Amino acid sequence: MARGNHMDIGVTTDGGKLVDQEKRHLNYLRISITDRCNLRCLYCVPEGRIPKLDHEDILSYEEILRLVKIGIQLGIRKVRITGGEPLVRKGVVELLGRLTRIRELEDVSLTTNGVLLAANAQDIFDAGIRRINISLDSLDPGKYAQITGYDQFNQVWAGIQRAREIGFNPIKINVVAMRGINDNEIIKFGRLSLDHPFHVRFIEYMPIGNSRTHSRDQILTPEIQEMIATIGVLTPVGNDQNDGPARRYRIAGAQGEVGFISALSQHFCSHCNRLRLTADGKLRACLLSDRHEPLKELLRRGGSDEQLAEIFRTAVRQKAAKHQLCPNGVTTVKDQMQGIGG
Ligand code: SAM
């Protein structure tokens, strides 16, 4: 494990906070709590079976909470629970409740595919979650089944409606835009923001791990934005501090918003504030680089908080100034998205 004077090697402790060589303050930890998922999205999983982590390889909730508390000492203020599909893991609502009760965390949120949302939305809300992201790549039940491998559109839509009734705010709907797959629905998704208060966010497809899609399926933001602009005038909406990298707009007269997340065409590395904790306990400083620091082994060997904190600092030291993926580039990220969490 690297040690030394952090000021000299690019990571300041800036009052105990994680600040990298690019002076980025890393205060956001995204946690994948499982690599299991109840969908098999074309762009996320390959043909055939993919190896699953054994239960003992996945961090326990106690281990996750300990790492979150260490992260908080280092300046983490925002946590997102993701997966795999987080709602398939038993006890997730209790974990969410324990996280939202941590005073130092200013924001705890959840990303889900929504399949199990209708049944769990009230408990998730009661656990203190208000901000929720739901992945939905088609508004057509048949197409949805084609993309995800499961005929669950109605279930997800019921979950979204339930989340709205209960009062989640914002409800963000994440759409991975893919040529020849759902590009004919981009306008329909944009229109969804007209009469629903949803934040519809178009995400550029990123070639990560093995999947059944390719870089040639990418549709980049400029093209998507051009299509959305045919619906009406787009007025930029200012980001608040809990917003991520989406460039946000409101279509004239809309209740909701549209947003564009352009990891490839206009990367946002210069203000990336994220670290990722994978389901099997690795700390990744960049989604688009397989470089990681293992935390689980030290955690289970009885490592001290300070030793674990040092691993956070090491990961931050390794955070590249910017990722190396480019539009239509080849896949350089070998790890699968469902273990990393997106
Ligand atoms: N199961 C949850 C869900 O579906 O939202 C959480 C995990 S999923 C990996 C998180 C997000 O990553 C989803 O919005 C998904 O669409 C997105 N995602 C997965 N693979 C992607 C890829 N290759 N490019 C862009 N986004 C991707």
Task: Write the topology of this structure.
Layout lengths: L27 E5 L28 H13 L4 E5 L9 H9 L6 E6 L4 H10 L4 E5 L5 H8 L4 H14 L4 E7 L8 H10 L3 E6 L16 H9 L4 E4 L9 E5 L5 E5 L12 E4 L4 E3 L7 E3 L1 H5 L4 H13 L19 H4 L2
Parallel strand pairs: 1-2, 1-10, 2-3, 3-4, 4-5, 5-6, 6-9
Antiparallel strand pairs: 7-8, 8-9, 10-11, 11-12
Helix pairs in contact: 1-9, 3-5
S-adenosylmethionine (SAM) binds next to strand 3, strand 5 and helix 10.
Describe it for me?
This protein is α/β, with parallel strands linked by helices and 342 residues long. It has one domain (28-340): TIM Barrel. It is 28% helix and 17% strand. The protein is built from 10 helices and 12 strands. The protein has helices at residues 61-73, 92-100, 117-126, 141-148, 153-166, 186-195, 221-229, 296-300, 305-317, 337-340; strands at residues 28-32, 78-82, 107-112, 131-135, 171-177, 199-204, 234-237, 247-251, 257-261, 274-277, 282-284, 292-294. A 12-stranded mixed beta sheet has the order 7-8-9-6-5-4-3-2-1-10-11-12. Helix 1 packs across helix 9 and helix 3 (117-126) runs parallel beside helix 5. The radius of gyration is 19 Å and the shape is globular. The two termini are 27 Å apart. S-adenosylmethionine (SAM) is lined by residues 37, 43-44, 82-83, 85, 111-113, 135, 174, 176, 203, 205-206, 208, 337-338, 341-342. S-adenosylmethionine (SAM) binds next to strand 3, strand 5 and helix 10.
